[in-house]
Amino acid sequence: MTLSQRNRYFKAGIVLSSACLAGLLSQAARLLPLYPGLVAGAARRAPGLFQQLAARHFPAVPQTPFASASAAIACALAASILIFVFFEKTHAPEILFFGLFALSPVFETIRFMVPLRAIYGFPVLFLVFGARILFFGRFSGALALFASSIYAAGFEPQKQGTVVFAIAIATLIISLGIPVDALSWDTSLAMISVYGEIFRRAEAAILVIAALTFFVAAYTRGSADYLIIAPGALFAALGRNLLIGADTWITLVPGVVFLCAGIWVVIARLHRVYLWL
Q1: What's the pLDDT tens digit per position in 168-181?
Q2: Cα separation of 77 and 83, whole Å?
Q3: DSSP string, 196-224
Q4: Per residue in 189-246, pLDDT tens?
Q5: Quick check: pTM over 0.90?
Q6: Burial per residue of 233-267, b for 16 or more beta-carbon CB atoms within 10 angstroms, e otherwise
Q7: What is the secondary structure of the chain as a DSSP string?
Q8: How far, in Å, CA of 269 to CA of 94, rounded?
C-alpha cells in the first residue's frame, strides 16, 4: 500500500469523526434532557469488569453516557489528526492499523440512536442495525490493534489492504449474526446482545495479546522503543474499554486519561522509531 493510499484512510477518519462530533453538538440541547429517563429505564448497568466494580459503590449518572460517547468521538478525531500530521510522509506499516484502532471509538456515535429515536420515532429496526454497527466498530478496533502489533513484529507489509479487507469482512459476518434485544439497553445506552459477554471477553483477550505482541516486536526489531509502545497500547485499550462503557464519572475520567495517554505514547514512540529511516 502506497503512502497516498494509506493517507486516504487517515483523511477519511478525520472527516468522519469531525462530521459525527459536529452532528452531536448540533443535537446536544435536545438530547441531554432525555438522558435521565433513558438511563432510569435501562435494563441493567453497563457491562465490563471495571464498570461492575464501580457499580457496587457509585450510581449511574444520566449525563455520563452522553459525555463518554462525546469524549470517545473527540479522542478519535484528535488521534486521526495527530497520526496524519506525524506520519503523512513516513512509511510505518503498523500505523495504519493503529490508526484504525484509534478511530474505532467514533462508532460510539451509534449510542445516540436511543435518545434520537425518542425524538424522531424511527422504527425499532434501526436500533437493531445500529447495535450491529456498534459491535462492528468495537470488535474491528480490537482486531486492528492486534494487526498493528503483528506488523510491528515483522509481518509482511505488502498485504495491508488484504488484512484491512479481511478484518472488515470477518467482523461484519460476526456482527450480522449476533442476536440483539431491540427494546433493551444498558446504562451506557448500548443495546443489549445475548452473546455480549462472550464477545467482550474475546475482545479483551485480543487486546491483551496485541499489547504483548508489541513486546515481541522489541525483540524482533531490536528497538527498546517498543518496550514503551507495548504498555502504551495496553493503556489505550484499557482506556477505550473504560470510556465506552462508562455510566459514572469514576470510570469516565480514567477512561479518557488512559485512552489519550496511551494513544499519544504509541504515536510518539512509533514516530521516533521511523524518524531516521
Answers
A1: 999 999 888 888 88
A2: 10
A3: HHHHHHHHHHHHHHHHHHHHHHHHHHT-T
A4: 998 887 777 888 888 889 889 988 998 888 888 888 899 999 999 999 999 999 998 9
A5: yes
A6: bbbbbbbbbbbbbbbbebbbebbbebbbebbbbbb
A7: --HHHHHHHHHHHHHHHHHHHHHHHHHHHHHGGGHHHHHHT-SB---SHHHHHHHTTS---TTHHHHHHHHHHHHHHHHHHHHHHHHTT---HHHHHHHHHHHGGGGGGGGGHHHHHHHH---HHHHHHHHHHHHHHHHHHHHHHHHHHHHHTT--GGGHHHHHHHHHHHHHHHHHTS-EEEEEEBTTSPEEETTHHHHHHHHHHHHHHHHHHHHHHHHHHT-THHHHHHHHHHHHHHHHHHHHT--SHHHHHHHHHHHHHHHHHHHHHHHHHHTT-
A8: 12
Locate 241 and state its grid cell.
474499554
- Residue 243 in grid coordinates: 470510556
What would the grid cell of residue 107 be? 462508532
